[in-house]
Amino acid sequence: MKRNLIAAILAGLFCISVFSGCGNEKKVTSEQNTSANNEVVTIRTTIQPSELSADLIKDFESQNKNIKVELVGADDTKLMAMIAAGTAPDVIRIRGAYETPSYVTRGLALNLDKYFEKSTMIKKDDLLPVANVYRWDGKNQGQGSFYGLPKDFSPDMGLWINKKLFQEAGIPIPDPKKPLTYEKIMEYSKKLTKKDSTGKFTVYGFAPGEGIYNTLTSMAYAQLNNTTLFTDGFNKPNFSSNENKKIMQWFVDFVKSESCVSPLVTMPDWYGPLFAKGQIGIVQTGYWYSGTLRGDENSKTHLEDFMYLPAPQWTEGQKRYSPVAAATGVIILRQSKHPDEAFKFFEYFTAGKPSEERAKSGWGLPIWKSKLNLVPQSTAFDKQSFDVVQDEINYMGDVLQYNPFLYPTAVNALIDKIVVPVYFGKETVDNAAKKLDAEVLKLINEGKEIAGVK
Amino acid sequence: MDNINIMKTTKPAEKRKPMNFKKKEALLFYGFISPFLLMLVVLRLIPFGWGIVMSFTNYTGFNLDSFKFVGFKNYIRVFTDSYASSSLLTTLGIGVVIVPATLIIALSLALLLNNNIKGVGIFRTIYYFPSIIPAVATGLMWRMIYNKDGGLLNTMLAKFGVDPINWLGLDWCRTSLYVYMLWGAGGGILTYLAALKGVPAELYESASIDGANSFQKLTKITIPMISSVIFFNLVNGLIAAWQIMYQPVFLAGMGLLSVPYEPNYTYLVHVYQQIFTSQRFGYGLAMIWVIFALSIILTRTTFYTSKFWVYNENETENIKPKRRKGKGRAVLNA
């Protein structure tokens, strides 16, 4: 019996050690470390490994002996769970163009004004206007205090075209100084689309890089048309206005024509490799995509076949606007235990060596006027695309006015539920717009309650 | 030192009373199950209770400044949210097809695989295989099969002159989901095979002598004899049917935030959307408790019906323990 008892105790201890071993991963969090007595502080960030190499981390750590950097992989779902559990990283990667207001109004973003005042690396005069997407004055995005900075940016509604496919379809090569209209895009897309004898697509006419009708595109397209998705100071959605319904109708018509990538026309892969292979005529996406084309085996040898065009317009002669739809960058979590160390890392990432390396790679444009000359300009392809973006910078003044009480994923989920049936002919644009107004209004009211706004 | 000796001599050392068998057994029992109990309390019961508390609040993940109890507001909302009711109906619709179809397919496969023919082991492995592949991998695989452009299914159909079908689109996504889910029906064959092996051969022999055909043997002997295993699989299937989530989500896209089309928009998908896209933690948890209650009611109802159709060889349910007066020990009323 004694032997059995010992066996039981040993079994219990073994199990406990196994279970405790499961969670025994050494987690060095900023909470556990304190900088008060020169102890090493670990700054955790959701910046992706492709955006911050191990060498750059080493470089930063060698300059800041008391700071370690840990990259934490977290998608939206995981990040929300981490925030809710109080274990979120110190420096968070966000898509500033449409996430800044919601992070600030929910009290998650640290006001960086006092840090910017003291910083020797961040010079406000040197910032391009696109950095304003990380500003918020309590009512409007683009004004007031800084809460973060983009790592780089792109005019996201620009168009990449395959000149060879245009020629094969008998379409004249567009003038890169003159924006196409959306009407022309649909017309060209229909001409570019090709199928084989089995009905399989061999060329897709148009791929919307930012997705078909969604939170971002509906807002960007509305602002391109000099209108907005919200009225009454963000208190009411306005999907049912004639202008916004016209935009939704354009998407629906385009989707139903089966000449653009959509729920009716699905691709076996994302647009990146397919455009490089010459299987897509037009892609609406940012300048950053030039990096993919330069590196892809299927495109790098004949870059002259590709061309970048400015953001389209709804009507010719309309006031030009080139929205920055993402402006991916970083904020510092207001709840960070080590905001000073987090800011040191923040300024290194946004204004230091990483920002220069990004500019040289051509994967995005620098937010610093003084670094624009680092962008690749050695080939005809580089020059053409850079000429277009330099011109586009003049039309990026206004930031997208995203509703601070809404979280984009929630609106996207609603759009998927309500608008997709329209593509399949199960719902009308009128009804979908009305439903969206009703459902988004509920979300706005909840968002206001959370933010303590009446 | 002397005193100690005196003590030793005057008061003989009291012999430790040996632990009785029951105590030892109890200690041994709790020693072995203590890690499980610890896990149960820490990882199940505490979150369970916490979930109940949070379902009565307006918690959204980071609204600690305006956090408050909202009474039954979240529960009332479950019954007024049109998406909650439509997604519940969708779940029921899928369950009504999937649960019986899974039972029939698994039982049919088990009956086929119960024969002692050469190579039957390979088939048993093949049919059971889908249930051990990780869900993400199966989701990706089925998306590749169903893809309208270049998908395996459409490529095969094209050889017969059939135009590409949008299997993942609004019109076909429910059918695609049924096929995807029934593909894993072989998971139940293991328990059916075990039950089939337990049916006494003499019953079949007697039936043969009486002139019963195969169908009669199946309906009069096999199914009644394995009815307890059918019941077990039915209850498990019903509980799983309320929880259908990952299959529709993976067919809609590879991210957990992908929104399935209306025919596949199940109740748990709506719960997930409420919690992780809208940060309505309180409401999402209230939705979970409502489905939990419904699940309990249906399971209890199924248990109630079991007395009409489930055959138990040892009818233990009629043998009720009777307590002796004054003794804490139960004896069987044999």
Structure, explained:
The complex is a heterodimer of chains A (454) and B (334). With 454 residues, chain A is an alpha+beta fold. In chain A, 41% of the residues lie in helices and 12% in strands. Chain A is built from 16 helices and 14 strands. A five-stranded mixed beta sheet of chain A has the order 8-9-12-7-13. In chain A, strands 3-14-6 form a three-stranded antiparallel beta sheet. In chain A, helix 12 runs parallel beside helix 13 and helix 15 runs antiparallel to helix 16. The longest helix of chain A is centred in the C-terminal third of the chain and has 23 residues. Chain B is 64% helix and 2% strand. Chain B is built from 15 helices and two strands. In chain B, strand 1 and strand 2 form a beta hairpin. In chain B, helix 4 packs parallel to helix 8. At the A-B interface, helix 1, helix 3, helix 15 and helix 16 of A face helix 2 of B.
Backbone shape of chain B: globular
Q: What general outline of chain A do the C-alpha atoms trace?
A: globular
The main sheet of chain B comes to: 2 strands, antiparallel
Number of helices of chain A: 16
Extract low-pLDDT stretches of chain B: 1-9, 326-334
- Provide the low-confidence segments of chain A as ranges: 5-35
Gap between N and C termini of chain B: 64 Å
Beta fraction of chain A: 5-15%
Calculate the mean pLDDT score of chain A and round it: 88
Range of strand content of chain B: under 5%
Radius of gyration of chain B: 28 Å
Largest sheet of chain A: 5 strands, mixed
Average pLDDT number of chain B: 86
Biggest sheet of chain A: strands side by side, in what order?
8-9-12-7-13
